[in-house]
Amino acid sequence: MPRPRAFDQFREVQEELARSGSAIFRDKAGVESLVIDDPYSIRYIHSYAEDSPFFLALAEHRLVGSRCTGPRCRFVFATPRSHCMVCGRPTEWTDLPNRGRIHSWTTCHFGSEAFLKETPYNLALVEFEGANSLLLARLKDAAEPDLYVGMPVEARFAEPPRYRITDVWFVPAQP
Ligand SMILES: [Zn+2]
Q1: Same domain for 93 and 15?
Q2: What separation in Å is there between the alpha carbon of 81 and the centre of ligand 1?
Q3: Mean pLDDT across 143-147
Q4: Is residue 144 scored above 90 in pLDDT?
Q5: In terms of domains, do 20 and 56 share one?
């Protein structure tokens, strides 16, 4: 049996694990760790509870946020909250536009298994007309040097939906 192949990048280790089931990770000090592929599966029944309308709206290619019912507050959350983080009152659902602007962004060079194929990838905080808070989402079809604060972006939606937060992402807005 040949010795597992050694790598100094964990991403290469993960790719090798998918290929052969074993690999050696060599850290910066030269210490070698044997790593094996050890699939682990658990069926987790997850309820979105009061967040459900957000995910159901994504499936209809719509973005919704929540608006504080406080008559003097009316804070609008682009990341929905059942209760207002400003004044504590319950919120109600409100439509958000499918277009927004980049408030800030970052490039992720590490990611969980779900994002391995698209790493490095860009994450943006998107601001919307009429909303007081931001939505964190992936940014696609844009190279990092082309990104800027205030850049118009528009939402894209997974088809068919998987009812996950990754059902929505943003791309540069068409003029
Ligand atoms: Zn409020």
Answers
A1: no
A2: 11
A3: 90
A4: no
A5: no
Extract the tokens encoding 23: 């690999």
Whole-number mean pLDDT of the chain?
95
CA 67–ligand 1 middle distance (angstroms): 8
Which of helix, strand or coil describes residue 38? coil
Residue 121's pLDDT is: 93
Residue 23 sits in which domain range? 6-36
pLDDT band at 6 (very low <50, low <70, confident <90, very high): very high
Q: Is residue 83 part of a domain?
A: yes
Whether 94 and 80 have beta carbons less than 8 Å apart is answered as: no
- If you measure from the C-alpha of residue 61 to the centroid of ligand 1, how many angstroms do you get, rounded to a whole number? 27
Ligand 1 centroid from CA 31, angstroms: 54
Q: What is the pTM for the complete model shown?
A: 0.76
In the structure, ligand 1 is a single-atom ion and the residues with CB under 5 Å from it are 68, 70, 73, 75, 84, 86-87
- Give the chain's domain count: 2
CA of 36 to the centre of ligand 1 (A): 50
**Cα(132) to centroid(ligand 1), Å:** 11
In a domain, 54, yes or no: yes
CA 48/CA 55 separation, integer angstroms: 8
Characterise 23 by phi-psi region: left (phi > 0), alpha (psi -120 to 50), beta (else).
beta
Query: How confident is the model over 71-87, as a mean pLDDT?
Result: 96
